[in-house]
Amino acid sequence: MIICLADVLAESELDDVRDRLNCGSFYAGSETAGWAAREVKKNMQLDAKDKDWAKLQRTVREALQCHDVFTLAASPRTISPVLFSKYEQGMGYGDHVDNAVMGGDRPFRSDLSFTIFLSAPEEYEGGELAIEDTTGVQTFKLPAGSMVLYPSTSLHRVETVTAGVRQVAVGWIQSMVREAERRQILFDLETLRRQMFSQGGKTSEFDILSKTVSNLWRMWSDL
Hints:
Elements: E1 3-5, H1 11-22, E2 26-28, E3 41-42, E4 44-46, H2 53-66, H3 68-74, E5 76-79, E6 83-87, E7 92-96, E8 101-102, E9 108-109, E10 112-117, E11 124-126, E12 129-133, E13 136-140, E14 147-151, E15 156-158, E16 161-164, E17 166-175, H4 180-200, H5 204-220
Antiparallel strand pairs: 1-14, 2-4, 3-7, 4-6, 5-17, 6-17, 7-15, 8-9, 10-14, 10-17, 11-16, 12-13, 12-15
């Protein structure tokens, strides 16, 4: 499933991230791409040696950990270090699939990918995130601070920026639930469980649903 989440970064966090990136040290993003994707990746990435890199990592990670819907949808076991990228005029990222295994010396499986938009849509032209799924191609250009969470198995691209600058934070997740269909079921059931509790409190029906959700977690969790 593809999920759009609003206000992953609060306004104050977003302003701080943008200010730090505007003074950051960047290098060609093709240096971190796989051998095939290197040919179509045309952007700039924040250098991990930049003085603000660690602070920016903490800001995004803490925001993700505090976002309830993100946690429900992703069930993260591992969250990669975040890459901060910018696309200036003429830059884009052609069709590609994210690497299945990432992390170098500490490998993890990429189940989910995410893009947090740091630039407002009116600040640049083009630059849509285009994701292919069974219904066709969906394109996303969200408000600053919002996120798209999508399967890492998807073929996707960033359309060429024709004016302005597109800034984003991107990362990858190994979920505690490997299969996308099972993550969807757990997400739907947990959403229902919370709605039931909000409307009727702790009833016998709520308890049965809670037991079912817990037992599905026991069957499906990949720990």
